[in-house]
UniProtKB/TrEMBL annotation:
Species per Swiss-Prot/TrEMBL record: Scopulibacillus cellulosilyticus
Protein name: Alanine racemase
Recorded family membership: Belongs to the alanine racemase family.
Residues of the Alanine racemase C-terminal domain: 248-375
Binding residue positions for substrate: 137, 318
Length: 393
């Protein structure tokens, strides 16, 4: 299943890298710990369906997404594995979730009450209760609220408590004291559940960071996100990883115009860049509207051309940018914005640092204008171009 694309800017997603990261994680985790592949936000920009299928084919047991639409996308693609929605789903949408066999996160008795009222069928609704142990985002925080929740739950047997979980705020940091604190609170909250007479089958707390650091403490499931894509959860963990992560995402374009420019000539909007002498200037068809943030230019962003780094110069435009070449190259020459070309490599971490953000944000910010090309064993197995999805050739 391949689609055409008519622009010379593309993302390559190396599914072998994802496979390798999932496989290594599987081997690293205790045998009875399940792996939930987190594919929210279109698989962190890589493609939710493609990553999900690859992860499931490599031994992932579960999938996780942020909201219901993302879960339904996976179902419509024919994926039958269990899926957990990590965020809130409207109580009135519970029938849809049940119809598609999607497990939901619950963290309020009021929500459960409303869901029970809206739901008219008899098929079970599977729930994971979220416990807030210090992230301060979603979750039940105290014993009284949890008891009230359990009492409500017991009124309606169609609502099945399948799991209980929490989320860590600092698992990627070197100082583990807050992580330990949250872990203890989670154990306490689980004991409250137990004394209220409920024992969910699936207990989980770990994101990539926590599961890489403490595989033995992760109860019976981990939520594996960022490191499945080959990225370290934080710079401080990068050099202490238990196995080698392989980055799956690269970004390329091609030069659309190459020219020799006279000394002291201006390049791009605002005429902020002036050539020092005669310079070879390349134009490429990628810009901030693709997600290549305009602020990158001020941060000395570079691209790789024929294995050599070249500075991006002048302002990044909506659909184009300019770079200063070492020497003349033909128009059509490939440029690498993220990835490896010969002996040079630009990592997602490098771009994240330039933008003063975390690596998570970088593949997410490259949007649907940029087609995704999927590689397996170095062969293209699929091209996804949402812009012209329905086009017939
Ligand atoms: C996104 C998310 C994860 C995955 O975290 P990574 O750091 O990417 O591994 C796990 N749990 C929850 C609740 C999340 O929202």
């Amino acid at each position: 299943m391949t689609a055409p694309y008519y622009r010379d800017t593309w993302v390559e997603v190396d599914l072998d890298a994802i496979e390798s990261n999932v496989k290594n994680m599987r081997t690293y985790l205790p045998k009875n710990t399940q792996l939930m592949a987190v594919v929210k936000a279109n698989g962190y920009g890589h493609g939710a369906v493609e990553v999900a299928e690859t992860a499931l084919g490599t031994g992932a047991d579960w999938l996780a997404v942020a909201f219901l639409d993302e879960a339904i996308e996976l179902r419509l693609a024919g994926i039958e594995a269990p899926i957990l929605v990590l965020g809130r789903v409207r109580p009135e949408d519970v029938p849809i979730a049940a119809r598609y066999h999607i497990s939901l996160t619950v963290y309020q008795t009021e929500w459960l009450e409303q869901a029970m009222n809206f739901y008219q069928k008899n098929d079970p609704v599977f729930l994971h209760v979220k416990l807030d142990t210090g992230m301060g985002r979603l979750g039940i925080r105290d014993e009284e609220s949890l008891s009230r929740f359990v009492r409500k739950l017991k009124e309606d047997s169609r609502f099945v408590l399948e799991g209980a979980y929490t989320h860590f705020a600092t698992a990627d940091e070197e100082d583990e004291s807050y992580f330990e604190e949250q872990y203890k609170r989670f154990q306490t909250a689980l004991s409250w559940l137990k004394s209220d007479g409920v024992n969910p089958n699936i207990i989980h707390c770990g994101n990539s960071a926590a599961s890489l650091k403490h595989p033995e403490k992760m109860f019976n499931l981990v939520r594996f996100g960022i490191s499945m894509y080959g990225l370290s959860p934080s710079p401080s963990m990068k050099h202490k990883l238990p196995f080698q992560l392989k980055e799956a995402f690269s970004l390329y374009s091609r030069l659309t115009h190459v020219k020799k420019v006279e000394p002291d000539e201006a390049i791009s909007y605002g005429a902020t860049y002036r050539t020092a002498g005669y310079e070879w200037i390349g134009t490429a068809g990628i810009g901030y509207a693709d997600g290549w943030h305009r602020r990158l230019q001020e941060q000395h962003n570079q691209v790789i051309v024929n294995g050599e780094r070249c500075p991006v110069i002048g302002r990044i435009c909506m659909d184009q940018l300019m770079c200063r070449l070492k020497s003349e190259v033909p128009a059509g020459t490939k440029i690498t914005l993220i990835g490896t070309d010969k002996n040079e490599c630009i990592t997602i971490d490098e771009i994240a640092e330039q933008l003063g953000t975390i690596n998570y944000e970088i593949p997410c910010m490259i949007n649907e204008r940029v087609p995704r090309i999927y590689l397996k064993n170095k062969e293209i197995i699929k091209i996804k171009n949402p812009l012209i999805k329905g086009m017939r050739l």
